[in-house]
Write a structure and sequence with these properties.
Elements: H1 10-17, H2 27-44, H3 52-55, H4 64-86, H5 90-118, H6 125-128, E1 129-131, E2 137-139, H7 147-159, H8 169-189, H9 193-209, H10 225-240, H11 242-249, H12 252-272, H13 292-302, H14 310-329, H15 331-347, H16 349-364, H17 374-393
Antiparallel strand pairs: 1-2
Helix pairs in contact: 2-4, 2-15, 2-16, 4-5, 4-8, 4-10, 5-8, 8-10, 9-10, 12-14, 14-15, 16-17
Length: 403
């Protein structure tokens, strides 16, 4: 009779599943960024598909935009710390950030202009206009018939990013944030993290009470820089101090702190599922515990996206820590099923973000995808995902399009 092998304790299985990559990049962050890009694509390609059951604030009162900004800061913090402390290259790091900011600024101008040129051949109104919830349509580009009369004004506004696709506006925010990142990195290198966070919060709170748009750029209507900087700055700090934060959460105090974060996340998830404003989502996908008028009042006061309410901020940070912990402890099974897609997309997220603007225009011009059929629309979103993944896999135009 053969010996029956002893069963492995549950803890050993957990260790077998944990993240243990020796790569320089943190693949967990890449994975999350890839997922964020999926949400952005679904929301920006304005057709209703099965993917909307995930994308329309189904994992909390958050959107892909917040994830894009916060994770961009986190990756910058991660990479910069290695350069500053391991390589002693603070000056080089700062120089690289200015260089990248100017690269993305030039890219923004190219995309804005290319969409206008594309409109000569096909209808690019999906990118050149914005339809508000009220139904009102806003033109995001000038009347080019008046170019000869107002060319100086149009060119000036173009250079100042006051035109452009609404799907692309957040890149303007990122450009400005990158311009200020060297100063933040210098303070972090001097161990002035409290100074950085204090300044960030003072600016955020001041703009909440007395909102202003210092750049005058179009993106500030959706992403006011003085409010949204708080996400980027905190993402940068989290990335810069990733190891210290990780060690803290493995202490007794950290375990208590994470338990509180988990409770907060679940409470906010419960709140989100009571949302009566979830568009075309079926009624059975909503909870009906919170009165609709009460929900709307709380949501508009604390969870608005453009002003980045405190409740939304709290939800952003909670979901970041929870998702990172989930990937850390269950990495191997999750990575085996989904990593092949999300990691490459996350590692080339800027490349995908740029290309998805043209995908929005393309899908809007295919009549078959404008019939309101959820299954056909799901096919449309899926085709865009596959196309993006294939372009990343085969590095199409990698020497031209920033990543």
């Amino acid at each position: 009779m053969k010996d029956i092998p002893a069963m492995k304790p549950m803890g050993s299985f957990m260790k077998m599943w944990q993240y243990s990559s020796e790569e320089k990049r943190d693949l967990r962050v890449d994975f999350i960024r890839g997922f964020v890009m999926l949400i952005l694509i679904v929301v920006h390609i304005d057709i209703f598909s099965l993917y909307n059951f995930i994308a329309w604030e189904r994992i909390g009162a958050v959107t892909g935009a917040e994830g894009f900004v916060m994770l961009s800061g986190a990756i910058l913090g991660l990479l910069s710390r290695k350069r500053i402390y391991d390589e002693g290259a603070l000056g080089t790091t700062i120089s690289k950030q200015f260089g990248r900011a100017f690269l993305l600024y030039r890219t923004s101008l190219v995309v804005i202009l290319s969409i206008a040129l594309l409109n000569i051949f096909i209808d690019a109104s999906a990118a050149m206009t914005f339809k508000a919830y009220s139904g009102k349509v806003y033109n995001l580009y000038p009347d080019f018939a008046l170019f000869s009369q107002y060319q100086d004004r149009i060119i000036a506004k173009f250079v100042m990013l006051r035109y452009g696709p609404h799907q692309f506006q957040i890149l303007g925010l990122y450009v400005v944030l990158l311009m200020f990142s060297p100063f933040i990195l210098w303070l972090l290198a001097k161990k002035q993290v409290l100074t950085v966070l204090t300044i960030s919060w003072l600016i955020y709170l001041a703009n909440s009470g007395f909102p202003v748009r210092p750049t005058g750029a179009q993106f500030e209507y959706a992403f006011p820089i003085l409010s949204w900087q708080v996400l980027f700055v905190h993402g940068l700090v989290i990335g810069f101090y990733r190891n210290e934060i990780w060690n803290f959460f493995h202490s007794k105090k950290g375990a208590i702190a994470f338990s509180i974060i988990m409770v907060i996340y679940l409470a906010l998830l419960f709140f989100t599922y009571n949302n009566p404003m979830s568009g075309k989502l079926p009624d059975y996908m909503r909870l009906h515990v919170i009165d609709p008028e009460t929900f709307k009042s709380i949501y508009h006061q604390y969870f608005r996206k453009n002003t980045l309410g405190l409740g939304r901020l709290l939800n952003d940070f909670a979901i970041l820590f929870v998702s990172y912990a989930l990937l850390s402890y269950f990495w191997k099974p999750i990575n085996k099923v989904f990593g092949w897609f999300f990691i490459p997309i996350g590692q080339a997220s800027l490349y995908v973000f740029i290309l998805h603007v043209y995908a929005c225009v393309l899908i809007a011009n295919i009549v078959w995808f404008q019939q309101g059929d959820i299954w056909i629309n799901t096919l449309a979103h899926s085709l865009v995902f596959v196309l993006m993944w294939l372009m990343v896999k085969y590095k199409v135009a990698y020497n031209i399009i920033p990543r």
